[in-house]
Backbone:
């Protein structure tokens, strides 16, 4: 098995400018074909828990979480408990922001990273009689940095991305009064930029915003994050490829006209 190559992660701060940041490193998670190395979440909104992608324990801001990501196959799963932005009354405003980082490496030299997908699900609740000043929104953005392919280390290739949302990313009064379920998706086609990538680092930003006016409230929450889920190609070993070629040749000869 190839030793994990963890590269320095470039932080992209999407919350208000400032030095505030709380990080938790959940460690490494070994999937079927890839390993998610140094899975780290960094809270970038003051006053919020450092465990937004997961759930916090009884001692906030102690650098530890009550839960960790779950790895199934070649994907990570998160079930956030407190990834919420809430605003109530005149001039209410709240931003909740976190960044997820991990380095994805094939478990053998025969595995290439082809695609990366993230799916998120949540809801938004708008209440009261108001105008579009009362609103809530969600955004997803970031980049994937490829540092190695099957030939070895390469000049880093940075692939930026932004998420798309169903039914939309921003909800406001009065048209979106009540509860609305939302979902978001990120799909990064790594292979189209680097055909034989073997090491790729994900830096993924999530932001929730809520604003309210007198007599109204707005709440938006992320409840499930599925991903990154990785699609891979497993390159046949030379011996396996040779056996496959011999088998196909034999099949061809058997099917030739006049073959016995």
Residues:
């Amino acid at each position: 098995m190839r030793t994990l190559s963890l590269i320095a992660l470039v932080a992209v701060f999407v919350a208000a400018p400032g030095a505030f940041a709380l990080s938790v490193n959940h460690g490494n998670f070994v999937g079927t074909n890839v390993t998610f190395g140094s899975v780290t979440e960094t809270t970038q909104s003051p006053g919020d828990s450092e465990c937004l992608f997961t759930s916090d324990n009884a001692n906030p801001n102690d650098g530890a979480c009550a839960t960790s990501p779950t790895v199934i196959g070649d994907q990570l799963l998160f079930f956030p408990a407190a990834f919420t932005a809430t605003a109530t009354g005149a001039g209410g405003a709240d931003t909740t922001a976190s960044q997820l980082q991990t380095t994805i490496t094939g478990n053998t030299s025969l595995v290439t990273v082809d695609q990366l997908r993230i799916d998120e699900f949540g809801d938004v609740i708008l209440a009261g009689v108001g105008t579009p000043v009362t609103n809530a929104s969600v955004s997803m953005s970031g980049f994937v940095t490829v540092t190695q392919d099957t030939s070895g280390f390469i000049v880093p290739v940075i692939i930026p991305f932004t998420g798309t949302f169903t039914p939309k990313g921003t909800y406001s009064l009065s048209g979106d009064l009540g509860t609305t379920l939302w979902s978001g998706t990120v799909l990064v086609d790594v292979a189209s930029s680097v055909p034989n990538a073997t090491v790729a680092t994900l830096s993924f930003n999530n932001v929730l915003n809520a604003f309210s006016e007198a007599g109204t409230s707005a709440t938006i929450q992320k409840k499930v994050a599925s991903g990154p889920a990785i699609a891979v190609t497993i390159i046949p070993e030379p011996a396996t490829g040779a056996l496959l070629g011999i088998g196909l040749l034999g099949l061809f000869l058997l099917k030739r006209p006049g073959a016995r």
Q: What stands out?
A: The radius of gyration is 23 Å. The helical segments are 190-193, 238-255. The first strand starts at residue 22 and ends at 30. The chain has one domain: 22-235.
